[in-house]
Design goal:
The structure holds two protein chains of two kinds. Chain A is an alpha+beta fold. Chain A has helices at 17-25, 52-61; strands at residues 2-9, 30-37, 40-47, 65-67, 72-74, 94-96, 102-104, 124-126. A four-stranded antiparallel β-sheet of chain A has the order 2-3-1-4, with helices on one face. In chain A, strands 5-8 form a two-stranded antiparallel sheet. In chain A, strand 2 and strand 3 (40-47) form a beta hairpin. The model of chain B has no long low-confidence stretch (mean pLDDT 95). Classes of the chains: A alpha+beta, B alpha+beta.
Chain lengths: 128, 498
């Protein structure tokens, strides 16, 4: 599964774009997070790997801005590998390797931000 | 029988043929070669740990201004330093928080910034004396400018520590980090088989005067730490060292969300292998070190033990709790602990670090006592009889009860006196204004409660947090025993303040 961040502008925020695309393309789109405000909406969705480009193009043709960025990022110089973040992640996106170093799998991250305030060093930064 | 002396080992260090291994490496050596051969072959075992050590801080001497000042209140980067010594000596403690950036920046960060060579703002005020006329000073200092900067930590290097989890329905923020609701994660502290005191549990070589790795520089053990509790394996150390030699990589300011600031301290202790006994003891593995998982959701000194666990299980990243697999975070950096043991090993191998024999041993029998508290501290002392009603009564009946008993809270119960809800005078006022007669429409059924043995401070915190003014007090069968109100807790805090 691949994650996409969808940005809906204010002028299209009340259109049923996601439903339309699901019906038309018959692809299982998993909505992980949704934040809809009057000034626009942001969705985090998960799409099967093989349909990722097709779905991205479909949203873009409806005027939705699609990104593939990280939701959070570990700042390596600040991190001491105390791994306080590791046990707060609900989806296993954070792991500890054999050298006891903390590893982030941004593909798995659902942006719940649970880890951010678990870090005693402010080393996990929310990406705008 | 192998018998070595400190002098013999130091001679080997001087010649460059000393054999040093880390505590992790020692496990396999003893397993393969046996205690006697290991004691003969290995001269020194190095240990290391890197974790949050709140009982840390530094003595600083600024030198005198002209005219001089007898500092009474001192702030470094807006963090208050303790001044109860001579004119320009202060102690900056790791957990003291900045008055402008609390929970984010504190004494631990000031110490890290000092050894990073950063410029620190110093403000001080004084009452002025004939010999120290200056009453106010604002300047900047760096580590280089000040005379002595001595890291002096009253309690470091716990032999082992409890692991933490949380049984409450909400996430809590503690000195053991962020603990998710319903036992969904566990945290622990300490480096297990790399922990200094675990490798010398009878304190044969670790004592007053032992030279150690401290914050990337050289330090010394100056005594047992506060709360030293050797009988149950919770020994601690008091240490000191020259901040000017230290390295910010091994001394890091940290901030635990909603808890406060602290200092991560890098500590490494060399253990000379003087005999077979020490070879055996330094071969301790994570499987041999057990601790307990405690429920930090219970706001009491006596937190319930959920299970016993080994450091091997904790370091695996997952343990079983109530039949479920739960992720476990080390709060100490095990990577840094290894690095410290490795660095200390290199210092000794390169002839830069010599061992000292302790001038006095640490106590092996000291008992850590709890504080005796004379004031009343549990809900038991503040509970009042609850005025109750059942759902069969009307809003009008309840209004009458409020007036009759001059109270603001009516606890709703069933026939067996079990808690069903709560109604306040505000709920009743609103119901009358809107002509609501049916009591069940205005009852709050999601009720926050207290038990007789809850600390009153905890109940007060619950009321503040949820913006409510009373908690029904119930027993384990949900039967109502009474009520504790914000008013009665105010009385408690009033007593404390006077």
């Amino acid at each position: 599964m691949k994650k996409l961040i969808l940005n809906f502008g204010a002028q299209i925020v009340n259109e049923a774009i996601t439903a339309k695309i699901i019906l038309k393309h018959k692809v299982l789109i998993n909505i992980l997070r949704a934040n809809v405000q009057e000034e626009g909406g942001v969705f985090l969705i998960e799409v099967p790997d093989e349909h990722c480009e097709e779905i991205r193009a479909a949203f873009e043709s409806e005027g939705v801005k699609v990104e593939r960025g990280k939701l959070i990022e570990k700042q390596t110089p600040s991190c001491v590998n105390c791994c306080a973040c590791y046990s707060t992640c609900p989806v296993g996106a954070i792991s500890i390797d054999e050298e006891f170093e903390v590893q982030f799998d941004y593909e798995k991250c659902i942006g719940c931000l649970n880890c951010v305030d678990a870090c005693p060093f402010g080393a996990i930064v929310i990406q705008k | 029988m192998v018998k070595k002396t400190y002098a013999e080992i130091n001679e080997k260090i001087k010649k460059g043929d000393v054999v040093v291994v880390t505590a992790e490496e020692m496990i396999e050596i003893v397993e393969k070669r046996g205690e006697e051969a290991a004691a003969r072959d290995i001269d020194v075992v190095t240990t290391g740990t890197f974790g949050a050590m709140c009982s840390s801080g530094a003595f600083l001497n600024f030198g005198h201004a002209d005219p001089p000042i007898k500092m009474e209140n001192v702030w470094l980067n807006n963090v208050e330093a303790y001044h109860g010594n001579a004119a320009v000596d202060v102690y900056i403690g790791a957990t003291k928080m900045s008055k402008t950036r609390p929970f984010e920046y504190g004494g631990g960060h000031v110490i890290e910034d000092l050894i990073s060579g950063k410029v620190i703002e110093l403000q001080a005020t004084a009452y002025g004396t004939d010999c120290y006329p200056l009453k106010k000073i604002e300047t900047v200092i760096t580590l280089e400018d000040i005379n002595q900067a001595i890291l002096c930590n009253p309690r470091n290097g716990y032999q082992k520590y409890n692991a933490a989890t949380n049984g409450r329905q909400e996430t809590i923020y503690t000195y053991m980090g962020k603990l998710l609701s319903n036992y969904r994660n566990v945290t622990f502290s300490g480096a297990g088989c790399l922990n200094p005191l675990c490798n010398d549990p009878d304190y044969e070589t670790i004592g007053i005067g032992t030279r150690i790795f401290l914050g990337g520089g050289i330090g010394y053990i100056i005594g047992e730490g506060t709360q030293h509790s050797p009988l149950n394996g919770f020994g601690t150390l008091m240490v000191k060292g020259d901040l000017k030699q230290m390295n910010p990589q091994y001394l890091r300011g940290a901030a635990f969300t909603k808890y406060g600031t602290t200092l991560y301290v890098g500590l490494g202790i060399p253990i000379p292998i003087l005999n077979e006994g020490l070879a055996r003891k330094t071969a301790i593995s994570d499987e041999d070190i057990t601790t307990n998982v405690l429920d930090y959701g219970v706001p009491s000194r006596n937190r319930p033990i959920l299970r016993s666990v080994t450091y091997a299980e904790l370091k695996s990243g997952e343990i079983e709790l109530n039949g479920k697999s739960v992720p476990v975070s080390p709060l100490s950096s095990l990577k840094m602990a290894r690095e410290i043991a490795e660095t200390l090993k290199q210092w000794i191998q390169q002839g830069e670090f010599f061992l000292t024999s302790p001038v006095e041993r640490l106590s092996t029998t000291r008992v850590f006592n709890p504080m005796k508290v004379r004031t009343k501290t549990t809900v038991r002392s503040y509970v009042k009889p609850a005025i109750t009603c059942t759902l069969k009564e009307t809003v009008h009946d309840v209004a009458k009860k409020l007036i009759e008993h001059s109270t603001n809270h009516i606890v709703v119960v069933d026939e067996e006196n079990r808690l069903k809800g709560i109604v306040t005078s505000w709920d009743v006022t609103r119901a009358i204004a809107h002509n609501v007669e049916n009591l069940s429409e205005i009852v709050t059924t999601k009720v926050y409660t207290a038990s007789l043995d809850d600390p009153i401070d905890f109940s007060a915190r619950e009321m503040t947090k949820h913006d409510i003014s009373a908690l029904p007090v119930i027993d384990s069968h949900k039967k109502v025993i009474g009520i504790v109100t914000a008013e009665s807790t105010l009385r408690h805090f009033d007593i404390h303040e006077h």
